[in-house]
Automatic annotation (TrEMBL):
<dbReference type="Pfam" id="PF00005">
    <property type="entry name" value="ABC_tran"/>
</dbReference>
<feature type="domain" description="ABC transporter">
    <location>
        <begin position="6"/>
        <end position="229"/>
    </location>
</feature>
<dbReference type="GO" id="GO:0005524">
    <property type="term" value="F:ATP binding"/>
</dbReference>
<keyword id="KW-0547">Nucleotide-binding</keyword>
<keyword id="KW-0067">ATP-binding</keyword>
<dbReference type="InterPro" id="IPR027417">
    <property type="entry name" value="P-loop_NTPase"/>
</dbReference>
<protein>
    <submittedName>
        <fullName>ABC transporter ATP-binding protein</fullName>
    </submittedName>
</protein>
<dbReference type="InterPro" id="IPR003593">
    <property type="entry name" value="AAA+_ATPase"/>
</dbReference>
<dbReference type="InterPro" id="IPR017871">
    <property type="entry name" value="ABC_transporter-like_CS"/>
</dbReference>
<dbReference type="InterPro" id="IPR003439">
    <property type="entry name" value="ABC_transporter-like_ATP-bd"/>
</dbReference>
Length: 241
């Protein structure tokens, strides 16, 4: 197994007076696409926030690329895309990506590369406020890619995208991983599990499974990711009853 991009030990997070992550420990390998899956409210976004260093943590440690999560030196090494696109509506696609490039000290050429990577060349000079929801999320992704990050953390990047765009984005994730980058991608679209090198299934803030899809299928006897996850969740509920 390759080195770790993220190492989490005993992570406890409380939000709104509730314990959301009670004591999570996990290791996310480098150079792979790791899918973070789980029911709504299971803590995926909270875990992602802890990895990028924007979540108040009650206990435990989160190490990212060998540094403490949230450390300023990580800012240039991590690309983070939140669930709602964080881009400027009144600027063009190119101006948005250029803005992030200038913050990160990235080259002009990398602006065009990032726009091409998300297949928005033909909209580079359109104002973001005039784009569709799926196009806006791709602008966000281009802004995250432009700094050439070692770790990309993407919270539901394919929501609202049609099947062709979803496939194209997963192809892009594969290419980025093949270049040695690490990706942590949350999703609740189960067929996307098949595109991940490794899966992390959360349930109620705990890791229910941390395995490859073939391992999960072998363990549960299910035919697909959805069947495997349902079997694991049913099993977990039976044992806690
Ligand atoms: N800002 C907040 N304040 C208080 N509690 C929150 C806040 N955001 C999320 N929570 C709670 O934390 C828990 C985990 O939420 P989180 O957003 O991490 O789940 P998720 O798995 O990403 O869900 P989804 O798939 O619906 O986005 C939920 O019970 C939620 O109610």
């Amino acid at each position: 197994m390759p080195g770790a991009a993220v190492e989490i030990d005993g992570l406890r997070v409380e939000r709104g007076g509730r314990t959301v992550l009670p004591g999570l420990s996990v290791r996310i390998p480098a150079g792979q696409v790791v899918g973070l899956l789980g029911p709504s409210g299971s803590g995926k976004s909270t875990l992602i926030r802890a990895v990028v260093g924007v979540q108040v943590v009650a206990a435990g440690s989160v190490r990212v690329l060998g540094e403490s999560a949230g450390s300023p030196v990580l800012r240039r090494r991590i690309g983070y895309v939140t669930q709602s696109p964080s881009v400027y509506d009144d600027l063009t696609v190119r101006a948005n990506v250029r803005y992030f490039a200038s913050i990160l000290g990235a080259s002009r050429a990398s602006v065009d590369e990032a726009i091409a990577a998300v297949d928005l060349d033909s909209h580079a000079d359109s104002r973001v406020g005039r784009l569709s929801g799926g196009q806006r999320s791709r602008v966000s992704l281009a802004c995250a890619l432009v700094g050439d990050p070692e770790l990309l953390v993407l919270d539901e990047p394919t929501v609202g995208l049609d099947p062709v765009l979803r496939r194209d984005l997963w192809d892009l994730f594969d290419r980025l991983a093949a270049q040695g980058r690490s990706l942590l991608v949350s999703s609740h679209v189960m067929d996307e599990a098949a595109r991940c090198d490794r899966l992390l299934l959360l349930r109620e803030g705990e890791v229910l499974a941390d395995a490859t899809l073939p391992e999960l299928l072998a363990r549960t006897g299910a035919e697909d990711a959805e069947g495997a996850f349902l079997a694991l969740i049913d099993h977990a509920e039976e044992t806690t009853r």
